[in-house]
Specification:
Layout lengths: L1 H6 L2 H15 L4 H6 L1 H14 L13 H26 L3 H12 L6 H7 L4 H27 L6 H24 L3 H28 L6 H28 L4 H12 L3 H11 L6 H20 L18
């Protein structure tokens, strides 16, 4: 029973509820789309507080960790998604969504999973920090390289940078400086669950109203999502074993190299581009829902001693 509770956390239940309600009752989708930026701002800010003693409190990411974070998230995972999408995706809106996914930083899921499982936490947290800082440069370059001819809302792009990168860093620093982090930590579960509910509902409600002109593109999205999670995880694990990398270090690379912030990509698509561009994010989130359950099951024997007091609050 404890194993099942560990694998099927409350966040998974919220995901299923949000998707189901979004598909059956999509009327509030437009309003929910407006709330995706504020919701993500809160989520990322709280995620930063989950670093050991906070992101801004004596956190010194190692250079190797920073490099590996960007290598796994962008050089390997990002390029895999871009190359596969270039050959398989034909609809313009879906292509935009795939580019946004490739440009996204790592999923915040890696933070609570890293706290639960026996992994090299220093490498993972350094990689996470490095990839988010790297996103400030790499994500715009990817967007400019592949989307420069796509019409977009420039004011929405500026708002994106402020709300999803600068504001979370500022709020996290302010919470640490004012010693609010302890109070926030006590309520982080319900706060993040409801924020994610808003994002998942908005994506599901938007997908419900779409007219799919190329169903084959949707199938290819699922194929790419499966390859970039389950298959890539197998490849990284095999490479780690071949080079004699410790299991803890390999796990940290798996998290950084198979999980991206799909909710972030979906929110950008809804607010800067179009509804069609948000569909890939929903597809990848659905695959990641299954992937995180499978990952926690496969790694369940490596639960850290304090895992009973920790649960996974993130799916993005």
């Amino acid at each position: 029973m404890a194993r099942l509770k560990f694998i099927f956390s409350r966040s998974h239940i919220f995901f299923l509820l949000a998707i189901t309600i979004g598909m059956l009752l999509p009327q509030a989708g437009e309003f929910a789309s407006l709330l995706t930026y504020p919701a993500l701002t809160v989520i990322v800010a709280i995620a930063l507080l989950r670093f050991p003693r906070g992101f801004f409190r004596r956190h010194k990411p190692t250079l190797s960790g920073v490099v590996w974070g960007n290598v796994m998230n962008y050089l390997i995972l990002g390029n895999l998604i871009l190359i596969a999408s270039y050959f398989l995706i034909r609809e313009d809106g879906s292509w935009v969504g795939m580019v946004l996914i490739a440009a996204a930083p790592p999923s915040t899921t890696v933070i609570p999973l890293g706290n639960i499982l026996r992994i090299d936490k220093q490498s993972m947290f350094s990689g996470m920090a490095g990839a988010y800082l790297g996103a400030l440069l790499i994500a715009p370059l990817i967007g400019f390289g592949f989307l420069r001819f796509i019409p977009l809302n420039e004011s929405g792009l500026i708002l994106l940078i402020v709300m999803l990168i600068l504001m979370p860093l500022l709020l996290s620093w302010l919470a640490i400086y004012k010693d609010w982090d302890k109070l926030i930590t006590n309520h982080k579960g319900p706060i993040t669950d409801w924020c994610f509910f808003i994002i998942f509902y908005a994506l599901a409600a938007t997908a419900r109203s779409l007219d799919i002109h190329r169903p084959l593109d949707v199938l290819f999205m699922f194929v790419i999502a499966i390859i970039s999670t389950f298959l890539l995880r197998f490849v990284i694990n095999l490479a780690g074993h071949y080079y004699g990398t410790t299991k803890e270090k390999t796990y940290s690379l798996i998290f950084l190299g198979t999980m991206k912030n799909y909710a972030l990509a979906g929110a950008i698509a809804l607010n800067v581009f179009n509804k069609q561009a948000a569909l890939p994010a929903l597809v990848f989130l659905s695959v990641m829902f299954i992937y995180t359950i499978w990952l926690k099951y496969m790694m369940g024997k490596d639960i850290a001693p304090d895992a009973n007091n920790t649960s996974n609050k993130y799916l993005t």
